[in-house]
Amino acid sequence: MSKKQLFLIGVSLGHSFSPPFFYNKFKKEKITDYQYDACVLKTIQQVWQCVEEYPDLVGFNVTFPYKEQIIPYLDWIDPLAAQIGAVNVVKVIRTRNHFQMRGYNTDHIGFAATLDAVKKRKGAPFHRALIFGTGGSAKMVAFVLAQQGVEYHFVSRNPDLGFLTYELINQEGMEEYDLLVHCTPVGTFPVVEQMVPIDPQLINSSHTLIDLVYNPKESLFLRKGREAGAITQNGLQMLEVQAEESWKIFSATSF
Fold first, then answer.
1. Model-wide pTM > 0.90
2. In this model, does residue 254 exceed pLDDT 70?
3. Domain ranges of the chain
4. Rounded distance, CA 255 to CA 164, Å?
């Protein structure tokens, strides 16, 4: 009996814990009719080939840099995912001679859980946040922060986008912000000795640092925060929560 196929798509997937997460989940829960693999796409246009060549494909997760680029390829997008502006879950609905791709966002559930956890550790709500990065994950973080009444500003390498720049942050400091969220792939395995260009000396014990990177367990960004006395949290909880939420979509029988 052929297995229902699930994928993770992205441009570089050697760091990802998603395939082993689902492998372990399927083994633990004795789920034998699904298979989850990584599928590297050099361009988002290759998603057509992926869907057409695997007739048993029922869905896929989306990671960097395709969470925004996948949207024009969808037949339908969940209103909340459309509001966020990013998709990390695609359900493939097949009929005899046709298929539809439907997009969702479960990252926001995972990040909200992570934010609640660090908030408990801090013992107080957050007030102002810096979001490092401007892509799909950064948009999701901004959505969750707005829901919780946290003021935020994006930080970008590109001054033409109208966001704060790293140079400006390094000049004026970060004392006005109590939450720093890293949403770029910088520092991800195997290039672990890198971080976004902020001055680590500006980080102190009044800050909380969240890095969506989870491989390595402690990124250079988080290590600098820990050494400065800040509360730190990687992205592993977010990965696990969003994966469980993704599974609910993948395994649902009615839409």
1. yes
2. no
3. 4-105, 108-237
4. 41
Q: How far is CA 67 from the centre of its chain?
A: 9
pLDDT tens track for 160-186: 778 999 999 987 778 899 999 999 999
Whether 4-105 and 108-237 share one fold: the answer is yes
Pairwise CA distance, residues 111 & 233, whole Å: 11
Q: What is the pLDDT of residue 241?
A: 98
Q: Which CATH architecture group holds 4-105?
A: 3-Layer(aba) Sandwich (3.40)
Amino acid at 63: T
Annotation says 67 is catalytic: yes
Q: Give the tokens for residue 84.
A: 């966020």
Provide the pLDDT for residue 227.
Answer: 98
- The CATH number for 108-237, chosen from 3.40.50.720, 3.30.450.40, 3.40.50.620, 3.40.50.300, is 3.40.50.720
Between the CA atoms of 79, 83, 88 and 89, what dihedral angle is there, to the nearest 10 degrees? Answer: 0
Return the structure tokens found at 72. Answer: 């024009």
Q: Which structure tokens are listed for 187?
A: 């520092």
Q: Which of 42, 67, 91, 217 is catalytic?
A: 67
Residue 255 has pLDDT above 70, yes or no: no
Q: Note whether 178 and 127 are within 8 A (CB).
A: yes
Beta strands in the chain (DSSP E): 4-10, 34-40, 57-62, 76-77, 89-94, 99-104, 128-132, 151-156, 164-165, 179-182, 208-211, 231-233
